[in-house]
Amino acid sequence: MMIAKDPQLPTVIRPGQITPDVTYEPPLRVGFGLNDQTVTGARATMGRTILVPGAGPNPRHYHAGIDVCWYILYGQITLAYAHRDGTGQGEAILEGGDFVYIPSGAIHVISNASATEEASLIFCYIGVGNVQDAETVWLD
């Protein structure tokens, strides 16, 4: 779905125009709202991730080519992280309203911290119009 708009005016993508992708980072449900498929010449990839209650971790990975930003909409999300070489491992519980910055090369994995409540976040891959250009390295 390409939404060709005037490149000097805002483009609006409505929720009904987004099809959730359950194959990109299972078990997450990812809806890509902004990318070079929806906005001509986009230099960012942005979307919403939904973690169903009890959703286990997505595959361990890092992005070699970009930094990532998140905004936690609601729920509680467990973030496990480490340096690219596996050192510096840690964990944090993210909550609605939190902003998260993930630098290029940081290993990160998320899961829903709740077995009964859904959680959701907004993500942005900075500087790239699609997930292929994020240079994702899958470790699992």
Distance between the termini: 31 Å
CATH architecture: Sandwich
Could you say what the CATH topology is called? Answer: Jelly Rolls
Walk across the major sheet and give the strand order. Answer: 1-2-9-4-7
Q: How many domain units?
A: 1
Please indicate the percent range of residues in DSSP E strands (runs of 2 or more).
35-45%
- Helical amount: under 10%
Keywords:
0% helix; three-stranded antiparallel beta sheet; globular; mainly beta; 140 residues; Jelly Rolls
What's the arrangement of secondary structure elements?
Layout: E1 29-34, E2 44-51, E3 61-63, E4 68-74, E5 76-82, E6 90-95, E7 99-102, E8 107-112, E9 119-126, E10 136-138
Antiparallel strand pairs: 1-2, 2-9, 3-10, 4-7, 4-9, 5-6, 5-8
Walk me through what this model shows.
The chain has 140 residues and is mostly beta strands. It has one domain (15-122, 131-138): Jelly Rolls (Sandwich), CATH 2.60.120. The chain has strands spanning 29-34, 44-51, 61-63, 68-74, 76-82, 90-95, 99-102, 107-112, 119-126, 136-138. The strands form three sheets. It has a five-stranded antiparallel sheet with strand order 1-2-9-4-7, with no helix packed on it. Strands 6-5-8 form a three-stranded antiparallel sheet, with no helix packed on it.
